[in-house]
User: What shape does this take?
Amino acid sequence: MIGSIRGKILDSQPDSCLIETSSGVGYLIHLPNDTAISMFDKIGEEIFLYIYTVVREDVLDLYGFNELDSKILFEQIISVSGVGPKLGLAVLSVAPINQLKTAIASGDSDFLTQVSGVGKKSAKKIILDLQDKLANEVITMDGGNNTSYAADSEVLAALLSLGYTERESRNVIKDIDQEITSTEERLKAALKLLSS
Assistant: This one.
C-alpha cells in the first residue's frame, strides 16, 4: 500500500494532480481543494504528499494530502458508515481543517450540509461518530484569516469555462476577500479582480 509519494508535478487539475516519481512512473492523485489550489504554479517542481490508497476489485485510487493531519481527518471521516473517499474529500474541501474540526466538534450539521452529497442525515451521522474524537483537537480559529471554501472549486470551474487559464484563475481565487463566502459572490469578486 502506498503511504506517501515524492515526485515532480507533471499536471495539475482542480481536484487532482499527476506526479512522476524518480522511477519514471506517473501517479494520478485525487486532492482536497486547498491542496489542489496550492499546486497551480508548481508544475515541474518536486512535491511530497501523504497518500491514502483505496483498493477494490476494479479500483486503485490514490488520495493525497499536504499535511498528515489532513490525511488523518480524511480517514476519520470515511470511517463513518456510508461516507466513501470521494465524499470524504468533498467534506475535507469545505473549509480549513481547524474550522472543519470545530464544526464537527460543536455539532454544526448545517456547516457540513454545504457539501454536495451531504444531507442532514449524513451530517448528523458524521457528527455523532466523530464529535467526541475531535473535541480535544479543536483549535481556536484566528479570526477566519486562513479560511478557504469548497465554493472555490465551483468558481475555478466557472472561470475556466469563461476562457481564463487555470493558472490565472487559481491565482485570483487566492486574492478573493475571505469574508466573501457564497459561490456567486466569490465568482463576482474573482471576475472583478481579473478585469482590474
Summary: The first strand starts at residue 4 and ends at 13. The chain has three domains: 4-65, 72-135, 151-195. Residues 28 and 83 are 22 Å apart (CA to CA).
